[in-house]
Design goal:
Layout: H1 10-18, H2 24-48, H3 50-61, H4 92-107, H5 112-123, H6 128-136, H7 151-168, H8 170-180, H9 189-206, H10 214-233, H11 241-253, H12 258-267, H13 288-291, H14 300-317, H15 322-332, H16 337-367, H17 389-396
Length: 397
């Protein structure tokens, strides 16, 4: 997979360099092992029995909200279908099905072993994130029940395989980002890369290794995640993604008439500046800056709270030493750090001046005494006896 990485920041480039692409066969093997690890985790949860019952009770009591994807409402069975049919959230139909099975088990129609096997099959219909949410309800343990040592290793093995697939397909996300960047010129490639990783995670949770190549299956999910992120952040005023898709589809097919075009223009206004009037308002009656919230506007309640907090901190700071006050003011932007620094500088300058004057006074006091000069006599040189030339010559001979 060869492409230019000049679109990304240095941090993203280093991340891509540390995680090379996995071969297709290796990714499929990891996906098969990930599926087996999820099945083992579902069997461990079904053996415990109470985590799924806890989450169903929380849903029925209203402590948890139901969540269901729009295309999943009619998918009651996942047998014989692709892994993309896994549910990403619990629906009321799931709670009704579980309550019915639990009633059959209590009435003796369904044995405990069959009910446990059904729970494992029921949990396997969901994505790994939902399986982890059910596993969190396994703690704290019910009174008198021993801890199960098989659940945590099964979940850890599944997470490790999922992370390996994620790290080995980051270059696939980068390739999709480079191809989609020309359609989203106003968005940084690093932001598109982060959104694409979310789509990659969805595809990993839904991929069935018996279907086909992982890259072929994951690319539409990555593109969808990138396009959804851009659709959410494109406009100053938030417009539902479904409405944006409807407008784009009708503009592309050209099936809308003049009345529909005017209605679509009102739904998605083309405002280029905050000073321009909104569509439907003339003579600058209502501008975009009049309806967009200003995050820098002071709010009375927050201003009063900040003033109280600042007063309390200022009282506590006044009890500390000046040097500590200056350090805290510089690090946390509390109080007047410039004034504290100037005060410390003046104190240090005065102390240095006093020290200098004390040193100068000591030097003048010692200078009144007459200096004693000690004379050192030089040592006499040692004279060696001179040897006559003829004697030295005779000795040499």
């Amino acid at each position: 997979m060869m492409f230019s990485t000049g679109y990304f920041s240095d941090g993203t480039k280093r991340l891509l360099q540390r995680h090379p692409a996995l071969p297709s066969a290796t990714t499929r093997e990891l996906a098969a092992a990930f599926t087996l690890a999820q099945a083992e985790a579902c069997r461990q949860l079904a053996a415990l029995s109470y985590p799924l019952e806890r989450i169903v009770l929380e849903l029925q009591s209203g402590h948890l909200d139901y969540f269901r994807e729009g295309s999943d409402r009619d998918r009651k069975r996942s047998l014989g279908k692709k892994a993309s049919y896994r549910f990403a959230g619990f629906a009321p139909s799931h709670v009704e099905e579980f309550s019915q099975r639990r009633g059959e088990c209590a009435a003796g129609i369904l044995s405990a072993a069959d009910f446990s096997a059904w729970q494992a099959e029921f949990l396997f219909r969901f994505t790994f994130e939902m399986i982890e949410q059910v596993a969190r309800r396994a703690y704290p343990l019910p009174s008198g029940r021993p801890a199960d040592a098989g659940l945590e290793p099964a979940l850890a093995a599944a997470r490790r395989l999922r992370d390996q697939m994620l790290d080995g397909n980051l270059l696939l996300v980068a390739k999709v980002v480079v191809s989609r960047a020309r359609f989203h010129c106003g968005t940084l490639c690093d932001e598109l890369f982060a959104a694409g990783i979310d789509g990659l995670m969805i595809s990993i949770n839904r991929y069935d290794p018996a279907v086909g190549h992982f890259s072929t299956y994951a690319m539409p999910w990555i593109k969808m995640a990138i396009d959804r992120y851009v659709a959410k952040t494109r406009h100053v005023i938030r417009i539902p993604i479904g409405m944006q898709e409807k407008v784009r589809r009708q503009r592309r097919t050209g099936e809308n008439d003049a009345g529909q075009a005017e209605a679509l223009a009102l739904l998605i206004p083309e405002v280029q500046s905050l000073e321009e009037p909104l569509p439907g308002f003339a003579d600058q009656e209502l501008r975009l800056q009049d309806v967009v919230a200003d995050p820098h506007t002071a709010r009375p309640l927050e201003a009063a709270e900040h003033a109280d907090i600042a007063r309390i901190l200022q009282d506590r700071l006044s009890q500390l030493e000046p040097i500590k006050q200056f350090i805290i003011a510089m690090r946390n932007d509390i109080g007047d750090a410039a004034q504290l620094g100037a005060q410390l500088f003046r104190e240090e300058a005065a102390l240095s001046l006093a020290r200098g004057r004390a040193i100068a006074a000591g030097a003048l006091k010692s200078g009144d005494r007459p200096a004693r000069i000690r004379r050192v006599e030089a040592a006499l040189p040692v004279r060696l006896p001179l040897v006559e030339a003829n004697e030295s010559l005779a000795v040499a001979v």
